[in-house]
Every structure is written in C-alpha cells, then in structure tokens.
Amino acid sequence: MCGIVGYVGKRNAQEVIISGLEKLEYRGYDSAGIAVITENGLESAKFKGRLSVLADYLAEHPIKGTTGIGHTRWATHGVPSDENAHPHFNTAKTLAVIHNGIIENYQEIKAMLIEKGYVFRSQTDTECVAHLFDLYYDGDLLKTAFKVNSIIRGTYALLICHRDSPDEFVALRNEAPLVIGYGEGENFVASDIPAVLEYTRQVAFLENGEIAHVTADGVTVYNSKGDTVKKEPFTVEWTLEAATKGGYDHFMLKEIHEQPQGIRDTINTRIDANGYIKLDDIKLTKADIEKFDKIYVVACGTAYHAGCVGKYVIEKLAKIPVMCDIASEYRYSDPFVDDKTLVIVVSQSGETADTLAALRESKRKGARILSITNVVGSSIARESDDVFYTWAGPEVAVASTKAYTTQLVAFYMIALNMALAKGTIDEAGYFELVSQLKNTADLLEEMLKDDSEEKEVASLIKDKSALFYLGRSVDMQTAKEMALKLKEISYIYAESFAGGELKHGPIALIEPGTPVIAVSTQTALVEKMVSNIQEVKRRGAFVIGIGCEGDTLLKGVCDKVIYVPKVDDLLAPLVSVVPGQLIAYHTSLMKGYDVDKPRNLAKSVTVE
Ligand code: M6R
User: Fold this and answer.
1) β-bridge mates for residue 502, sequence order
2) What is the DSSP letter of 331?
3) Strand 493-498 vs strand 466-471: parallel, antiparallel, or unpaired?
4) Minimum CA distance residue for ligand 1 atom 4
5) Is 468 helix (H, G, I), strand (E, B) or coil?
6) pLDDT of residue 394
7) How far, in Å, is the centroid of ligand 1 from the Cα of 104?
8) Within 10 A of 97 (CB to CB), how many other CB atoms are there?
9) Is the pLDDT reported for residue 512 higher than 70?
10) Which residues pair with 35 in a beta bridge?
11) Atom from ligand 1 closest to the CA of residue 299
12) pLDDT at position 340, please?
C-alpha cells in the first residue's frame, strides 16, 4: 500500500521525507517520488523502483526547501512507471498531489477536465485530483481542499502542496489512514506512526471526511462541513527500535523471535490477581454471550487462518456455532447476520479494506462487533463495539508471524471466558488451560533457540517446484497457514489438504520426490495421519512430519520429523506453526529472495 509523508517546518524537507518513507517501506511499493517547495517554485523527482533510486538521485541533485510531500506507490491504476509514480501535478506544475487509495469517480472527473482542456500525463486516478485542485484554486489551498473533497469519491489519503502557499499543505482522509505528528515549530502527516517517530511522539489520527491544514506553527483539523475538530494528541509509547530490525537480518526473523514476548504481553496484561482472564476492553456481559446464537469470524489471509483456529476453539470450549469466512467473500454472500450474531473481525493492521467493509456490512445488519487487531486506533478498532488488542508490537515483514500467534492467544482467551460465563467448562479445566496458555511463551522461547532442523528442511525443499501440507482437524488450519507462509516468500507452489481428502483427488499430484509436510499434533488423529502419510509415501513422497514430543508413530513412517513441545491438543496450533514459519523464512533466504518484501505483496491491503 502507498506510503505518504508530508512535512512543514525548519528542517530540510527532503531528508525528513526520505527518512519517513524508509520507515513505510514495509507497506510495499513499486515507485517513489517527492515534491518540495523551493525558492525556484515546486521541484520534484520520481522514479519507478526502490526508494533508494530516488534517494540516490536526490543525493546528487538535492532539492532544498522546508515544505514538501513524498510518496511510495503501490500500483492500482496504471503500471508501475516514472510517469505513474506520485506526486502528480497540474499542467503548470505549481501544485503537487500524493494519494493512497482509489478515486472511484475519477473517470467522470477526468472526462469533465478533458472537456475543459486539461491534458493528462499519467494513467492514474490520482492525476484528476491535481487538475481538479488547479480548476478551483484561487489562492486559498484550504478552501480548494473543501471543494475538491465534496467532488471526489472513494478511498483516499491525500496531501497537496502549492508553490504559491509555500508554508502549508493540506491533508484529506477518507478510508485510508493518516496520522498527524505534532512537533515544535514543525508538523508532519504520514500514513503510519514510524514515519514521524524520529521527530515526535505526539500524534493523532485523522478521521474519515476530515481535512487538516498543516503549517509549521500548528495543525487545524476540520470536518467535511468546515467545523473545527479538536484533536487530542496521544503519546506513542513504543520505540522506533521496536519497528526496526534490532540486530536481526530480517524483520520476519525478528518478529518470529518476538512471539514469546508478544504472547506474554497479550496474556499477562489480562490476568487478574486470582488467575482469571479479565477482558476489560471487552464489555460483553454473560447475558450478551448467552444471547448470541452464532458467531461469524471474518478476516483475510493469515488473520483468516487464525480465525479458523478460533472457530475450532470457540466451538470446542464455549459450544457456540461459529462460521469463519474470508472477508472479501463474506461481504457479498448475504450472511445470516442479525442482532443475535457476534461478528469477530481479525486484522493485524486494522486497515484491511475487505475486512473493514465486512465489519460495516455486519454492523448494518445489527451484529455486535468484536475486533482483534494489533494497531491501536486503527479504523477497524475505532469502528468496533469491542476491541481485543494483541500486544505483538509493530509487525513490519509482509509475512505475518507474531500477529498470527497473538491472534490465536486472543481467541483462546475470548473462548475461555465465554466458556466460563456459559458454564461449558469447569474451573479446574479453565485454570489448567490458562496455565498452559501462559506457558506457551516459554515453550516458544525454547523452540526458537535452535532452528537447524528447519534450515535442513529448507535446503531439502528449496529447489522443488511444489510442496504439499497435510493436516487433520485443527492441524489442517495450521497446514493452511504454513502453506501461505511458504508460497508468499519462497514463491514455491504450496497447497494444504485435509488428510482425509487425499484419496478424493489431491493424491494424484504426488510423484516420486514430492515433498509433503504432515502436521500431526492431535492425539486422537495421529494414527489416521500415519495412514495418510503411508498413502503418499507409497507414491514416492518425501515426508517431513511435524509432531509432538513423545511421539512414537510418526518417526516410523516419516523421512524426517520436527518435534514441538507437547501441550493440550487445543493449544497445539500455537506451537506447531513455528516450524512452518522458520521453514518458509529459511527457504526464502536460501533462494535469495527479499524475505521481508516479497514480490507483488503489500503489508497492508487498503483497497478492495
Ligand atoms: O492486516 P491484516 O491482518 O488484515 O492483513 C490480512 C492479510 O492481508 C495478511 O494476513 C496477509 O495474508 C499476510 N501477508 C500473510 O502473511
């Protein structure tokens, strides 16, 4: 997703913007650009490719000024190219626009502007905003922003600066995140907090429909009607270090290793003096819980896989029927949602467009919304009735790891509380699971001390063109997540199958040498999985088992077994996913790929 940084103050804007855009690289992008107001007017540079291409150019050809805007683009309308990179300009190149999102009515605006003689240089939807500003600009940038805001439709975070208003810029927000950073004699606007953290910890989010007028002396925020909105900045407690690599080669590896801490932070802040889970941030009462006749879990990607485990856990513990759906499908499926439905939306970023849309559709139908998210103040958090924050810390690598395990923790805690409220678990069972859940952090810490087995598996699979994961019951969900992890960063075709489904088709894909990773942690199903392993072995597969310590069966049939600590069957997904994350990481590394920024993917998908 695009990254946006705007600056006005006394510093060299170019430096602030490039440094801010570097902190937003995790969002994924294909080109980068900058516009700064200088004594010569508006100067700019933009290039297809990595941010370093732009930075290297600027090192040779610096642009000097103290007001400017910069952008990393993740293409939606128009291919990645120098022309389509942002900023976009009016014909006279007196104003510059950067944008994250999609202007849905750009075609009709473009037609109107062409009729008036405007000539378009790019294939983007954004360029129409530049010409629209040009059409209405009469020397008052803020007034023009209100006019343009009333015409454009869609999702947008927009920053606009003008040569003739050198000490200000404006920011418009609708459905795409923007955060204001408040400094002393300088101010910032960006897509995410890390971009401004080097300069200030005082931040506030812009809400939908709001327009910010930004100068060095202050930021005034207006709603779409033109009324002033009072913003209460809050202090960011986490450090920039927490959002940078901290000694690890890659964010993904760092984040895999941060899982024990993320799990601890997520659990420990919610256990009271008597050992009970206390979900202060969720206001669901016993009566509310009893009223729900079903639960929908809605999410995308890895968060969806966490939701699939969540479905299993809630059904097992709290005996409430749960449907788990992919957000982009759910929205259009006319789901059976009403005021007796709890909808749990799961999203690391809290900004995923499909998940947000599913939340709104559920709300419209009268459901109560509980979100599980990692980003405080994100759109999903703000629009939910209740929020369970996972305290995983910022997740930067595109491949989600610590967000997933902390999302599982959230589901365990929610399910345990529901079960206790409904009386579907006794106190002894409850305390046993709470205690084991807490202990998983230590278990993961131990596991992460040695990844030699996963490295060995990576070396065995790295040159294969396809790989299959098998699992039964909740292990099937872990298999799905492992397959997603491998395919997104190693580009190996990876698919997961339910063990029992093999004979119904997938086994036709097995040929001599095909690697198969079989996840088998469920006590009652190990023998069944052993049969499935034998089926694929007979067709020549090379099988790597992922089983629990103490196993005697898997090692008899697999070519290799990676053991994870034995925990209650219900909690097994929390430990068994880790080898899958490490296998994916090492495979990508051995293939020489960009582990943290895989091709074609963005960290935060804020368009449908
Ligand atoms: O921010 P979200 O959790 O809503 O993101 C959902 C997916 O886009 C995300 O999990 C994606 O699948 C990851 N790249 C998986 O590693």
Assistant:
1) none
2) T
3) parallel
4) 347
5) strand
6) 81
7) 24
8) 28
9) yes
10) 44, 69
11) 4
12) 96
CA distance 7 to 215: 9
The residues facing 298 across adjacent strands are 325, 345
Determine the Cα–Cα distance for residues 519 and 530; give it in Å rounded to an integer: 10
List, for residues 460-492, the tens digit of each pLDDT value.
999 999 999 999 999 999 999 999 999 999 999
Instruction: Summarize pLDDT for 193-247 with one digit per residue, the tens.
Output: 999 999 999 999 999 999 999 999 999 999 989 999 999 999 988 777 666 776 7
Single-letter code of the amino acid located at 206 = L
- State whether the beta carbon of 355 lies less than 6 angstroms from ligand 1: yes
- In whole angstroms, how far apart are CA 416 and each of 264, 314, 425? 17, 8, 8
Helix axes 51-60, 13-23, angle to 10 degrees: 160
CA angle 45, 604, 207 (to 5 degrees): 85
468 Cα–ligand 1 center, Å: 21
Q: Closest Cα partner for 370 from 422, 426, 299?
A: 299
pLDDT of residue 28: 67
CB 169 within 8 A of CB 6: yes
Residue 604 exposure: Cα atoms within 13 Å on the Cβ side:
31
What is the C-alpha separation between 47 and 34, in angstroms, rounded? 10
- Which tens digits make up the pLDDT trace of 266-320? 998 789 889 999 997 799 999 999 999 999 999 999 999 999 999 999 999 999 9
Catalytic residues: 2, 603
- Ligand 1: atom nearest CA of 349 is 1
